[in-house]
Design a protein that fits this description.
Chain lengths: 333, 257
Amino acid sequence: MNTTDTTVAPPAPKSRASASGLWTRLALVAAACVAAGFTPGLLPNLFYVHIANLTLISGIFALSLWIIYSVGQLSLCHAAFAGLGAYCSALLSLRLGVPPALSLVIAGLFTATMAALLGAVILRLRGVYFVLVTFLFGQMFTLLALNWQDVTNGANGLISIAPIKLLGISFGPRSMFFYLAFAMFMATLLFTWALSRSTFGRAFNSIEQNIDLAESCGIDTARFQVIAFAIGSGIAGVGGALIAHYIRYISPDTFTFHNSVAYITMLVVGGRSIFWGAVVGAAFLTPLPEFLRDFEGLQHIIYGAIMVLVLRTLPGGLISIPSTLRRLTGGGK
Amino acid sequence: MSILLDVKDVAKRFGGLTALKDVTFSVAEGEIVGLIGPNGAGKTTCFNVISGTLPLSDGRITFQGQDIVGLRPNRIIRMGLARTYQATSVFPHSTALENVMRGAFCRSEDTFLGSMLATRASREAQSKERDRCMAILDRVGIAHVHDHLAGALPYGYQRRLGVAIALASSPKVIMMDEPAAGLNPEESMAMGQLIRDIHTDGQVSVLIVEHDMKLVMGICDRIIVLDHGEQIAAGSPNEVRNNPQVIEAYLGTEVEA
């Protein structure tokens, strides 16, 4: 009574659509670059350029946090790794005179190494236990930065950090830094995209969906989690270093628990299912408080209300708007 | 007929509780071996110990002559010893085909850099892999739903998908934890047929834990009976059926097949 084997469908059509998809994406990237080229000139004043810069860096943080999230782990010490990278790069350039462009890279590698060491120990924890340990690590970082006076200059922070210079061009001025931030953001975005479609991305997503089964598929879940944590935190380290050389002043207050929460909020509000959510979340939440400045006093209340509204109506985040609209209008595909 | 999986004097203790004691059996090439016993006899624990999910307390396990004690599950699977789970275990948010391709993760010729840059070699490796995985889906009889999300598939299909995922790693031995649990008698019989098919045309040995006596008696070459973590009998279905100790363990209510 073998009835089931009779209901076999024709073989799946071979997917050849990826090639045209690639060109669409390249066109999008090119369009974004052209638009970015004009952006600093078109913005009314330097304050807006500053906001744009912060938004791009937030995008880097949110994307890198998404990479960690893509193995199903929520890191509450993302800002601590950003801070680690910032202090590393700032100290290298201040104390040892390392060119910032190089110290930026070293900071990224250093942060990734530290994350790998920490991750190897704590990534066996899942869920709330992992979240708690990362929270504690974040607090440890803040305390270390405050109390290791000889190196970090304590609560006073580090001042007059050199701006990034590359090929004789200084990326210190706000409108110049915009191009650097944009390039770094695009690099992170393209890297995350490529990573998510690579064999690593497949392994990461398998771990997120069903870690036991992933292990049973021959995926070294412990190793891939450390890799994701190191990559994500390493990118955060570079992001932190960018801030250090842009604002040119860092203190323990620059990278606190609240920043870590802010990055998580970006992920949740933007949407966690795919990395675009992180970009949308950062683009929405970073400038939002600035635009609410006119409502003095009510600013934070309105900010909170908007977040509640988004989460209440769009549990999948802002990126789920198109599919939600499609469902509401009752349309087909 | 060479021995693939060899379990010797294996014991597992959880604190003071002895879940397994002196379990000794082997699975040879081309065999279907059943592992049965009343609830709480330690069958699933036995699986978890062999697959590396739980550390064992005592004993020795070799696979193709190599010691596998202490290896992590992903290493053991890559050696050719796959398993399925008692409950349905799939990647719910991925398509059925994608699920099987993940099962083939350790067999894929695709490389990290290649897949990141979407090189020709990587795309070819992927399309080859896709064809192979479609064939596996076909073999377990659910190729027609390859593009459905696994979490949305009917229960019986999800169980088959679980088998397909395990098959994708091209195992030499596949351990199945209650493949027929929750299936109706017809589906259960079809599952038995599927296991027999996998066994004959894939040259895969099967170690199976199952409560459905009809199924076990029907497909197994040899049966091992556990009770309270101890091995109380081993032999052909007929020998086991008539073993007084086995009948006692099941309180005489079982083995009606």
